[in-house]
Amino acid sequence: MKLDLRKLLLPVVTACALMASSSLVQAETVFHRGNGTEPETINPHKSTGVTEANIEADLFEGLTSYGVNGELIPGAAESWEISDDGLVYTFKLRQNAKWSNGDPVTAADFVFGLQDAVNPATAADYAPILDVIVNAAAIRNEEEKDLSKLGVAALDDHTLQITLATPTPYFLGLLRHNISYPVHKATVEKFGDDWTKPGNMVSNGAYMLSEWTPQASLTYVKNPHYWGAADVKVDKVVMYPTEDLAEELKSFKAGELHVTYDVPSEQIPSLEKEYPDEFKNTPYLGTYYYVINLTREPLGAQPDLRKALSLAVNREILTEKITQGGEAPAYSWVPPMTDYTQAFVSFKDMPQADRTAMAKELLAKHGYGPDNPLKIELLYNTSENHKKIAVAVQSMWKQIGVEATLRNEEWKVYLETRDGKQFDVARAAWIADYDDPSNFLDMFLSNAGERNDAGYNNKTYDELFQKTTVETDPATRMKLFNEMEQAFLNDDPMIPIYHYTSQHMVSKKVAGWEYNILDFHLARYISITE
Question: What is the rounded CA–CA span in Å between residue 246 and residue 184?
């Protein structure tokens, strides 16, 4: 009997095919990343935190974007031209840019997105940073009701023109901020506030939302329609809310996480020794501070009391003994920036013993001391690291006659409390969106809305900022910013504590996680070797 070689080989071929199919399924690359607190929202026009920005930068893409080293690169726009007077920016969008549902990304999408960002109905905390665009401030303040008057126009499907009110050197950097991301008009109009839910969201970035289980994980998968999809190596990203840093570190050590959001500060010395290749500790363009509520008595009306609180905080002890991550004690609001000279609090060079003595004198001047302590509440969002700092500061304040009650709240509740000015002193932090002091100083303008956590209102400060918006000489502009910062620090509306470094544990399996001072690490650059 003659054997049919094809029939003989069929089971083998079938088995091989099944094995190959199984191999393909197993070959899915998943990036497991710790991401701090549970996201407040992933609507890029309404979010305010780093936690949300990390996710949104993977789901969406602005006209400009972040390179692997944090450098500014083309995003949804492949090129642009700037008029000689620095007021008109004309962007050419990528012909092959598409939304996650396959729709083309057009100039009209960016018009709609920017209009949505400044629309008072959106109530975007970050909207004021778009005031550099013609009529943005007027629309945001409801002085102009017609959204079409915003200085943004679609010249054709792939040509967008933005007209500024004043020359803005950092404008291209601002356009990669989440407030500048486009949103899919048909989806927003169809689902309303629910457009950000899995199954509803349409995004234009390298990834698209897949699952979201609150307090457990948020998952997104590769967007096959993304213009650069061929270069995206990670198929799926799982972001984990991680308020308990000790548990997060355990997950990393167990191989359950590729990257941590942070590390427990008390373990930094041992991590440096035991995990020299995995522990990453790098400079970070941000400031950790305590904001003082100027709308509440007695701190709001008494600058002496605010100064006393700041004087008593031993920043060197906090950074050397508590945080231990190489942070720089902060005596300015703005961290070190390119071409900028920082202003400092008046007591920067005073020995701590003298600061403490002065703090006691200022309190005594207003009748406060050990026998009649100044009673205040210190608010912070849930985190072991924040708690350690708060407990240490509480002890420092007790030495000068201040009785501080500590209150911690989960991230979303904390934001509501802070934005609603329902606190005396609150833990806060600000991380730069672009390398320009305006990104810090515009937060405390009298018209900055909820971003102005302190409720600060200083006419001179506002006027100096307006001068920076029309100043064309770079050196003079930076000098104006320095005067602004000095005026701000002299009023003591906040207590700068330290300038950041960022700490992460990064698995040896991860490639593409490169240092940058903004600490942005897009998943599209990551690859995993198992």
Answer: 39
Which residues does the chain have with pLDDT short of 70? 1-26
Q: Is 265 left (phi over 0), alpha (psi -120 to 50) or beta?
A: alpha
Q: Across the strands, what pairs with 328?
A: 499
- To which residue do tokens 């969106």 refer? 433
pLDDT in tens, 241-261: 988 999 999 999 999 999 999
pLDDT score recorded for residue 5: 30
CATH number of 44-195: 3.90.76.10
Whole-angstrom distance, CA of residue 150 vs CA of residue 484: 29
- Domains of the chain, by residue range, sit at 44-195, 199-281+503-528, 282-502
* Helical (H) or strand (E) element with 185: helix 185-191
Distance between CA 44 and CA 383 in Å, rounded? Answer: 24
pLDDT value of position 1: 33
Q: What is the rounded distance in angstroms from the CA atom of residue 421 to the CA atom of residue 291?
A: 11
Residues 6+ apart with CB under 8 A from 464: 480, 483, 484, 487
Query: Whole-angstrom Cα distance, residue 329 to residue 452?
Result: 23
- 416-420 contacts: CB < 8 A, separation 24 or more? 417/379, 418/291, 418/379, 418/453, 419/125, 419/450, 419/453
Is 199-281+503-528 assigned to CATH 3.40.50.11540? no
Q: How many helical (H) and strand (E) elements, i.e. helices and strands, does the chain have?
A: 16, 18
Query: What 3-state class would DSSP assign to 273?
Result: helix
DSSP state at residue 343: P
Both tokens of 430, joined, read: 């600000």
Assess if CATH 3.40.1160.10 describes domain 282-502: no
Tell me the three state secondary structure of residue 353. Answer: helix
Q: Could you read off the pLDDT of 128-146 as tens digits, one per residue?
A: 999 999 999 999 999 999 9
Q: If we measure between CA atoms, which residue out of 237, 203, 239, 208 comes closest to residue 62?
A: 203
Cβ–Cβ under 8 Å, residues 293 and 421: yes
b/e 256-290 (16+ beta carbons within 10 angstroms → b): ebbbbbbbbbbbbeebeeebeebbbbebbbbbbbb
User: What is the spatial distance between Cα 64 and Cα 79, in angstroms, rounded to a whole number?
Assistant: 9
